[in-house]
Amino acid sequence: MNTNLRHVAFVLLGCFTLLFAQLNRIQVYEADNLRDHSANTRTILRQFDQVRASIFTSDGVLIAASIDTPPDSSFSYQRTYPEGDLYAHSVGYLGFAVGADGMERSHNDILIGQTDRQQLVQLSNLLRSDAGPGTVVSTLDHQLQSAAKEALGDRTGSVVAIDPRTGAIKALWSWPSFDPNRLSDPSGTASSAAYNELLGAEGNPLRARSFRDLSPPGSTFKLITAAAALEHGAATLTNPVFEATTGYTAPLTTHQIKNFAGRECGGDLTNILVLSCNGPFAQLAAESLGPAAMINQAEAAGFNSTPPIDLPSAVASTYPTDFGQQLSPPTAELPAGTFEKTPVLAQTAIGQNDVQATPLQMALVMASVANGGIIPTPHLLSEIRDSSGNVLDQNNPGPWRQAMRQETAADLSQALIAAATEGSGRTAAVDGLVVGAKTGTAQQGGGQAGAHAWIVAFAGPPNSPPELVVAVLVEATEGSEDQTGGRVAGPIAQRLFQIFFAQPDQ
Hints:
This protein has 506 residues and is an alpha+beta fold. It has a domain at 218-379 and 402-500: Beta-lactamase. The protein has helices spanning 2-29, 31-36, 41-48, 103-106, 108-111, 116-124, 142-152, 188-199, 209-212, 222-231, 269-275, 278-300, 342-348, 359-370, 406-422, 485-500, and strands spanning 54-56, 62-68, 77-80, 93-95, 99-101, 135-138, 157-162, 169-175, 242-245, 247-249, 256-258, 265-267, 374-376, 381-385, 391-394, 399-402, 434-443, 451-460, 468-474.
């Protein structure tokens, strides 16, 4: 009898042990997963039906707020977005039936007052009737954001403007966009219908093209090829001097990489950047740099890594890392340093083949040039303030990575200023400012129509570091075969510089 009781006791003890372990697993180790699970509506309900901090632009424009709902609503509050589609891809949306995106998602704890500093202030304000969650100030500039929308118009594409010294994002616009107010409707039926409609809409307006879509960067990628040449001693601004030709044919192929419009050009590194000569850049990568130098430089600039922007679902820009084995021994036809995929390597030097980038990434590449080789951490959160307007916290995330030496950045800046004075980048130039620019025109292959038009540019007052970097992508569409970065994207960058620096129209 005693033996049987002992067996039962051991079984019960084992059951209690398993139950205790399971409770701890659920309450401790799985708590975050369960809280964020899409089937758990309690967290969504708690966050949706409460006053959240209002969000303002850096120049004081209200772009998100909590308002009272009608008396017959199931909720007490809902979010409203006074500027409609203008900040849909940055501020995002919050809806009970559709969840959240943008700053509403990535900075949720701040918006509901759950940071330690905010809770401490709330405890001290318990007796105040006007105490609330306070406000959040973004880095976005309303005038600049509005200018980006107006300048891009109804063309599919993106505009990114960033302070290269701090990483503060001043404008982040993509078209097509959408009205987030439709998704914040407290009626689950209405917001779900709006969400499904947007999911099926042409151009996928819910998707922020500026940091979630990849496109071939074309000649804007020559910034990285030029940086690799300067960093690895393959070139200076004045040496070597490339022979003027119409293009370049890499080892292992008979297909020539032609200069734009089949023109003949060459010269030193400054000149081939100003004229955007495809052949010399392809030759640099294939014969002087090789895969390792190109991969290292691309990855130093942020390729193959996800930019640490404080918005959800950013994607990594990509540069290929497999160029096959080096062929040996070299022959007269195959010089030393030839790899199995050397023709592909040559194409990547001009931003084609498997090179893919977001406008945000190309803005960060240009920011490294403007900022002495350092890429700042891109961010939209600037300040957290209490209900009285007092600053509780400031967001200064610092640098992300070093893309190149300061000397390399200075050399590239010099060449890019020449490109904005003498080359295709002059469409971004503004009287009274020092502007550096690199355009890109990425022809679409595989039966796709048109060409992507790119520009990346920096600007600042004379004798001062650049204060703004702009990246513009106008995407290829049917009938856009003749569009170029200089003709189509350049004037958009120029307009943003005029607005930001309060310069008159030219």
